[in-house]
Amino acid sequence: MQFFIDNILLIFALPLIAMAIAFIGKFFKFSFSKGTVVYSSVTSTLVGLIYAVALYFYYHTGVTVEPTEFSMNWLRLGSLNVSLGILIDEVSTLFLLILMLISVVVQWYSASYMADDENFDLFYFLLNLFVFSMTALVLSSNMVQTYLFWEIIGICSYLFVNYYFKNAKVSEASKRVLIIDRIGDMMFCAGLLILIYFIFNYPIDASGELLSYTALTDSASDFYVYFSDTGFYLTSLLFFGAALVKSAQFPLHVWLIDAMEAPTPISALIHASTMVSAGIFLCIRLLPIFNLSEMMADTMLYFGLATAFICAFFAVAQTNIKKMLAYSTSSQLGLMFTALGIMVPATATYYLLTHAFAKALLFLIAGALIKYAGNGSLEYADMKISRKSNPVTALCYFIAILSLSGIFFGGFFAKELLFENLQITNSLAVVSIFCIICFMTAYYLFKSYFLIFESGCDVVKIPNSLKTTLVVMMFFVIGATYFVSNDLSFGGFCDAFEILSEPKSVLSLIIISVLGALTAYGVVLKKWESLPPVVNGFARNGAYIDKIFAFISDYIFEPIASLAKKIDKYVIDAFVDFQATATKTISWFVAYSQGGNIQSYLAHSVFVIILILVFCLVMAIGIGEV
Amino acid sequence: MDKLQAIIFYIVALAAVVGAFRAVFTRKIFYSVLYAFMSFIAVGLLFFALELPYLGVVQLALCGVGMTVLFVFAIALTGKKDEIISPIVHRPRTYLSIIGLLLLTGILACFFRVGSFMSDNIAQTTNGVIPSTKAISAELFMSYGAPFVFSGLFFLAVILGFGVILSMKIGGKK
Amino acid sequence: MDFLFNIGMYHFLLLGLFLFLIGLLGTIISKNLLRILISLEIMFCGITLNLATFSVYSDGTHFKGEILALFVMVMVSVHIAVGVAIMLNIHGFKGTVDVEEIGELKG
Q1: Domain C2-102: CATH class, spelled out
Q2: What pTM, to 2 d.p., does this model score?
Q3: Which residues of B touch C2 (CB under 8 A)?
Q4: Cα–chain-centroid distance for residue A368?
Q5: Predicted confidence (pLDDT) per residue in A239-277, tens digit
Q6: Domain range holding A416?
Q7: Are residues A524 and A584 in the same domain?
Q8: Domain B2-87 architecture
Q9: How far does C35 lie from chain A, in Å, by closest CA?
Q10: What's the longest Cα–Cα distance across chain C?
């Protein structure tokens, strides 16, 4: 076990090697074959997976193990002490496990999915870059390092969305993704700067370490004392805002819809399970800070619930499979933030785990459907596939939906835990909204299943190579049930039932979800009345939030930017040019003294020597030693 | 006696300065050489006043006679060109330089006057060696033998080179 | 009056200074190359005079200053001789000894 901890740097180095292998063909004459690229990539992730599993079981045995930290001093500025390091504890090993598991499956899947793509090497290069930076993020030991890799995964996301860059629509979408991601980065940076300002002005003993997570628990109260209540709330709000943007919460969830232009395996990896969980990761790490402010907890709760409700509402009306899944991701992440808002990080993390596997499986199936059944189209109506011709695929989809909508498997336990914890708040509004969200989730998921797999045409078959990966993923989804427990230790399946204390809430949750499923069955197969067309159109277009953002950027930011451009051109450039012309003019004057006449040179130098002598004499007189 | 010494000194000094001045400010170059000769002889005499006979002789012979002969031959070889000094080209520089130099000497003289060097006598009542020719030769060959030899050799080489160049000049007329 | 009639170190030094400055003036304002060399020689005379004065009016036990002045004088002669040789060669090349006409440096 100590071996794994000592050699933890290996899982940083391996993705970098795979990156190099994938991209070396661009720089040198020879290039590796596709097989080599894939095998190196998958091997490096498999090694990482072994590490992750070993570390997970070490840290989640039910006995509290001390977190291990390695740090290397990076910056020392006054009382500020920024280090780069690795912090291994329960939270980071869990995130690492999710990351590695899903990466392995996605890399295996995309070997055959992207096999006939021309930028295959670029794909694996970016994949390994993403795995590397995400590993460094989840194992990061302080906030600055998290911020650094936060930005890198944002860039990876942009590069992935821009993968089919020859398409103009894709470029536009990737631009929007990047800009909104940068807004989140900016908020993170602002929060960091405020904390750094605090560290500089309030030097206590360990204040230099305040940015590292191990010291955060102890020193969080110092933050609270220093800032006023409002100031503290605003600072936490900045960090929460960064997590909001990264996890695609309302109102900045629009980037996730645009990010669906990325290849589908990437959506499975990044936009469903891993990168969007970076926001959750940050909030869990900063919970000691958020805990101190009542308003902050309430804010997280309300934002989470609002996002979950609104995005579920949008997802109900979608007919585009990837958009539906994107809105669904936002919605479920909203529920995770709700869990954080009521101060149960264990529930949020378990929800994240089950959601990650289920959503990744859904995205992978969606990829197979788009490519083979829909011929590139993403609409439900174009998917020519049925349950009878592809039973395995349909089974995978069904199990994923069961988990996600909270009827059975891991998702059920997660939702149940969340439901029970929500009831502690004793707020009828919160509980009822949660019930409506569960209903809507089940409804749109089962609606998509019925629309795709029960539509009656059974033309295509999904190839076996893809099907294998899907089945593997399905087993992970089922296996996620094992990870349940109140403090995320390795419990067994039987433990799961022990933690559910209230049969009443269990029953009500199951009834709500099944009701949603039945409603979907009725709407699709029995042709019941669905939503009125106005509401449908409103929801399908995401409440036209895109248009609002476009308006803001066209009519508010564009004039400011053009004004800045004018200032740059006429003021700043003119100033710099003035310096150049001033130098030229002065040198033109001075050049007159260089006439080419040596005797005048001599005269000038004699003059200067005389000046120096007079100066020395005057100084000597002044000192008094003539 | 002091007064006589002083007067002689002033006359010789005047000769030196006037000679130097005329050497710079005369039109004909040959006259310039002659005035310079006058200045060198005056300086040589001053060395004698400083009770440095060896140096005085060297000055008279080397700088005085030798240089003058050198310059005369140089003039002979290059042709006597008359020169127009002051007017069009250099006038402002000339006058400004003169005024500047005079001012500077005035300033320096005033400063040095403030000090304590009021009246030291010429004839140093030494309690040591009188720099006679014999003593200097002894010193040169014993203490300063090496520099003497090297500088002698170097001087020899230069004279020979000068002769060579001159012979090329006379013979080849490049 | 005292200063005027008791000749001391200052007088010699002032004389050396005058000679030096006149020589300097000559090097700056002369148009003929030979006149420049003559002015240079006048400068060196002034310098040697200064050196000799210092050697007399400082420690009187030895005459190291005089020997130094001797070496300097010899070096000066060599210097001027070389200068004259150069001048003669320039005259051979350019045909003139006028400083303005032989100069090729442009400002």
Answers
A1: mainly alpha
A2: 0.67
A3: 118-119
A4: 24
A5: 999 999 998 888 888 888 888 888 888 888 887 778 788
A6: 293-540
A7: no
A8: Up-down Bundle (1.20)
A9: 13
A10: 57
